[in-house]
Amino acid sequence: MIKKSVISFLVFALAYAVLIAVFPNRGIGTHQWQENQIRAHQFLYEQTTDTVIVGTSLSARLLADSLPTVSFCAFSACVAEDGLGLVLTKEKAPRYVLLETNYFLRPSHGVLVKVNTQGIMPLLRKYIPMLREQNAPASLMGYCCMQGALAPKEEVDMKRLEENIANRISDDDTHLLTDSEVEERLQVLMPLVRELEKRGTKIILFEMPLNEKLKHVASNEQTRQVIARLFPRDKYVYLPNDTTRYLTNDGEHLEPDGQRRYSHYLKQQLQQIGAN
Predict the structure, then answer these.
(1) Number of helical (H) and strand (E) elements in the chain, helices listed first
(2) pTM for this structure?
C-alpha cells in the first residue's frame, strides 16, 4: 500500500511538473498574501531585468504589461524595506532600482523577507518550479479561469473617498516620527541602500501621485525632507512628478485608469534616462 502511494505521488508530481513546464502561467492570487508571494517568487526565481521597482502597495498596482523591461519588487501591505531586502538576496544586483519614496520611513513587519530567505523552502523553490506560489493548484486554476475574461470596471465611490481622505488627515499625527524614531528607521534602511550601491546599483527616486488633499500633510512632508537629506539631487536622479491630476480609490491608491496612465508616464521617463 505504501509503495503504491509513493508511486502514485511520484507520477502525479511528474505529470504536474510537465504541465507547468509546457503551460507556464503567471499565476493569479486568491488573496493578498498569495499575490505577494507570487510576485516575490517570480522576482526571485524568474526575472532578470536591469531595472527593478521597489516600493509599497502604491507602486505595486502599476501595470507590469506597460513596463515589460521592469521587474516589480513592490507589494501590498509592505514597504520599501521589504523590497530592498529581497533585491539583495539575488546573486546579481540590478543596474537600476526605482525607489518609491512614499512612506519610505514606515517599518516592515518582516514576514515577506523571512519566509522567502530562511529555511529550506527558498532553496527547493529555486530548483523545483512546482513549489513556487504561481504554480500552486489554486493559483493555476485561477489563471486558467481568468484567461480571456474582462476585468470588472471599478467605479470610485466619491463619498467613501472623501471619508477616507478626511480620516487620513485627522490621524496624520500618528504617522509623524520623532527625530530618534527617524534615525532608528534609517539605521535599518540605509545599510540596504548602501549595500546595493556598493554592488553597482544606481538608485533612482520617484514619488507616486496622491490626492491633492493628502500630498502635503505633515507626515508626507517629513518623509520628503528626510529623502532630500539622504539623497541629494546633485548626486541622485529624481523622476519628475507628473503634474496630471489622478483619481484615487482612497486618496492614495490610483484607480485602474490612473494606474494605466501613470505606468505609461513612468515608461516614458525611464526611456529618457536610459533605464528602460
Answers:
(1) 12, 5
(2) 0.89
